[in-house]
Amino acid sequence: MVDGDSIRESIISILKAIGDDPKREGLLDTPDRVSRSYSELFSGVGLDPLEAFTTIFTQEKMGGTVILKDTPFYSFCEHHLLPFYGVAHMGYIPNGKVAGVSKLIRALEILSRRLQIQERLTNELAEAIYRALNADGVIVVIEAEHLCMAMRGVNKPGTRIMTSTSRGPFTNGQISYTDFMGLVYRG
Question: Of 1, 28, 59, 106, which residue is 20 to 30 A from 34 by alpha carbon distance?
Answer without folding.
Answer: 106
